[in-house]
Specification:
Layout lengths: L1 H9 L6 E7 L4 E8 L5 E4 L17 H14 L6 E7 L3 H14 L2 H6 L37 H6 L4 H6 L3 H5 L8 E6 L4 E12 L5 E7 L17 H9 L7 E4 L6 E8 L6 E5 L8 E2 L2 E2 L2 H8 L4 E7 L5 E9 L4 E5 L8 H7 L2 H8 L6 E2 L2 E2 L2 H8 L4 E7 L5 E9 L4 E5 L3 H8 L6 H7 L3 E2 L20 H8 L7 E2 L1
Parallel strand pairs: 21-22
Antiparallel strand pairs: 1-2, 1-4, 2-3, 5-6, 6-7, 8-9, 9-10, 11-12, 13-14, 14-15, 16-17, 18-19, 19-20
């Protein structure tokens, strides 16, 4: 018995981390106990700390602490009112007192230096991120280095560092993203060689090694099966198929840890793969193309919902309207361009409804076609139903192309053609040289120069072609049709 007591007394408990908090409204440093049901922060003043006071205790392991603090921060009411600092549990009281003295005497410049020691959740607070809308990953830090990539495995797919650089595919890989376009690879199995297009990404394994993941093309996502514990509703399926984003935050289950993770879901439009993204990591800009977002609009986007914005200004200075929404695959707020082009069965059923057809007639033509914004002159012609030439379009392989678009007011869709449909119609019409032939042979009209000729007129014929027809023309004959 005595040995057991001695053993318990002498047992060395592993060190844990805890949190100190600075309330920016009253400049008070306290120790964190937790969060109550209403999301209010529970704290203990260091001078009133008792032995039985239970502080927040977290394992020192980096990932465990990061995951804990991200969830902690998300549940907290008014998190921006507090600055948090991570310290050893055993040093918490002394550190809190020292930090309070520093805060009481610090100048504004010295207070600013405290931010170097402040901790924030992963990717920081979503409401305080970018000032402008990001449509690429240029401002993201590199997560991997080229030397970490298993180039021997890459070579088995017919890929090298130089080849990926030429395809502009290496940069997004190093930033932790999938490649922006489909990459052609070759899989040599000895007896069989398979070629396919995939998107690539890099993933860190449990042992720290960097693996290569292939995202192959699927015919369509299987939305009838549960996805990480979530069962798709009919509205979910419709949204994913029509614009690629499910449109709401749902609780997903991590299959390895059983952790419940509020997330948004999108469909990779290149591969039809379903992609989930933690809601706590979502970044919402303060401004989108000249439009300052208010808190309600930001919250709408944080909930995964689409947001329609009017009066945005393009890089060319023209104004346009569009829907924006957070995309889990791209990890940023994207423009939803020209939804009328999305071909979906449920949509076609709606178009067969007379009521919907009347609504189509009143639909406003889109300002943007396949990511290409029309200028004012183009848009006026397009809006009036005229055919407009558009250049600088980019296909899924990154190649530029051009063509002609016309807005169909009956279906509210944009018709595209590589050749000018007006020119095709003009070619389909008879030229001046063929008008007499068409009028006489097809429309039953008469021509004074050929009205008595019994044979059908030949191509480009507008007068008697031989002596026989000349004799026929001299003789009076019954009229074969209306006078031209």
């Amino acid at each position: 018995m005595e040995d057991n007591q001695t053993s318990n007394i002498n047992e060395i408990k592993p060190a844990k981390d805890t949190l100190l908090v600075l309330n920016i409204h009253n400049n008070t440093i306290e120790m964190v106990k937790g969060i109550d049901k209403e999301g209010n922060l529970q704290t203990v003043p260091p001078e009133n700390k008792k032995e039985n006071d239970q502080l927040v205790r977290v394992d020192k392991h980096g990932d465990l602490f990061s995951n804990f603090f991200s969830n902690f921060y998300r549940q907290l009411k008014n998190p921006t009112h507090f600055n948090f600092f991570k310290v050893l549990e055993y040093d918490a009281v002394d550190t809190a007192k020292d930090l309070q003295q520093y805060v009481d005497q610090a100048s504004p410049e010295e207070r600013e230096q405290l931010k170097e020691y402040e901790i924030l959740p992963k990717n920081t607070n979503p409401l305080k991120n970018q000032k402008t809308m990001e449509n690429n990953t240029d401002n993201q830090e590199y997560r991997f280095q080229p030397e970490q990539i298993d180039w021997k495995t890459m070579e088995k797919f017919g890929l090298t560092q130089e080849k990926l650089e030429k395809m502009n595919a290496l940069d997004p890989l190093l930033r932790g993203y999938k490649t922006n376009t489909l990459i052609p690879i070759t899989i040599n199995l000895g007896a069989a060689v398979s070629k396919m297009d995939v998107r690539l990404s890099l993933q860190e394994g449990d042992t720290g090694d960097i693996g290569i993941k292939l995202h192959g093309i699927r015919r369509e996502p299987n939305l009838n099966l549960k996805f990480l514990g979530h069962e798709f509703s009919e509205e979910d399926k419709k949204n994913l198929m029509e614009n690629g984003n499910m449109g709401r935050v749902v609780d997903l289950v991590n299959p390895k840890t059983d952790e419940i993770i509020p997330s948004v879901i999108s469909r990779d439009r290149l591969t039809n793969e379903l992609v989930a993204y933690r809601a706590e990591y979502m970044k919402i800009p303060d401004e989108i193309k000249g439009i300052q977002l208010d808190e309600h609009q930001k919250q709408t986007l944080l909930e995964g919902k689409p947001l329609y914005l009017e009066g945005m200004t393009s890089t060319k200075g023209t104004t346009f309207d569009a829907t924006v929404q957070f995309n889990a695959d791209k990890r940023y707020v994207e423009f939803i361009f020209d939804n009328n082009q999305k071909q979906h069965h449920s949509q076609s059923q709606k178009e067969n409804n007379p009521q919907n057809q009347n609504q189509h007639k009143n639909s406003e033509p889109p300002r943007v076609f396949r990511d290409k914004e029309l200028d004012d002159k183009q848009y006026e012609k397009f809006k009036a139903g005229e055919t407009v030439y558009v250049s600088g379009l980019v296909d899924s392989k990154g190649k530029e192309y051009q063509g002609y678009i016309t807005f169909n007011k009956e279906t509210a869709k944009t018709d595209f053609s590589f050749t000018n449909p007006n020119k095709l119609r003009e070619k389909a019409q008879p030229s001046e040289a063929h008008k007499a032939q068409t009028a006489v042979n097809t429309d039953g009209k008469t021509n004074e120069a050929t009205k008595n000729i019994k044979e059908p007129l030949q191509s480009k014929q507008q007068e008697p072609a031989n002596k026989q027809q000349q004799e026929q023309q001299k003789k009076p004959a019954r009229s074969r049709g209306r006078k031209m």
